[in-house]
Amino acid sequence: MQDQPTYKLILWSLVTFSSLLCQGWAAKCAPNDHAPTVQQTQVETTDPPKYMVEVRNSCPMCPVINVHLKCGSFPQALVSPRLLKVLAFDDCVVNAGLPLQPLQKLSFNYSHNKFLLRPTIWYFQCE
Predict the structure, then answer these.
(1) Residue 35, Cα to own-chain centre: how many angstroms?
(2) How confident is the model at residue 3 (pLDDT cuts 50, 70, 90)?
(3) Domain count across the chain
(4) Which residues touch 95 (CB under 8 Å, ≥6 apart)?
(5) pLDDT-based confidence at residue 30 (cuts at 50, 70, 90)
(6) Which of 26, 72, 77, 101 would suit a FRET pair with 94, their CA atoms being 20 to 30 Å apart?
(7) Structural domain contains residue 78
(8) What is the CA radius of gyration of the chain?
(9) Residue 76 belongs to domain spanning
């Protein structure tokens, strides 16, 4: 029974450390350091070409929400609005603005000449 105080101290230390992590004492993702990424890969050389787009939350700690992309005149008919919704010229939102979990990837395909897609606005949900 002499190990019980040691066990309690270890347990108390783990609980305290865990609560500090949950309350924001752990490293969070700064918008400039962990911006969502967009990667486009041409998967078919047909006419028009086919592209696979992968949007990734690069933050290992926090979900990212309301990811908006600069998307030019991307036609809504090319992809489901649940994956990429065209809001206006040069403004598209990924995943209907819903969270992408830490390091989660969302992908979709479209057949058209290549559109330049890049993140413009996003918010981390760290707390």
Answers:
(1) 8
(2) low
(3) 1
(4) 55, 67, 82, 83, 106
(5) confident
(6) 26
(7) yes
(8) 21
(9) 37-124
pLDDT above 50: residue 71: yes
Backbone torsion region of residue 10, taken as left when φ is above 0, otherwise alpha when ψ lies between -120 and 50, otherwise beta: alpha
Residue 104 lies in a domain: yes
**Pair type for strands 64-70 and 91-94:** antiparallel
Q: Which DSSP string corresponds to 19-87?
A: HHIIIIIS----TTTS--EEEEEEEE-SSS-EEEEEEE---SSS-EEEEEEE-TT--GGGS-TTTEEEE
In one-letter notation, the amino acid at residue 127 is E
Q: What is the CATH number of the domain that holds 82?
A: 2.60.40
The helix/strand/coil state of 7 is helix
Averaged confidence pLDDT in the chain: 86
On whether residue 63 sits in a domain, the answer given is yes
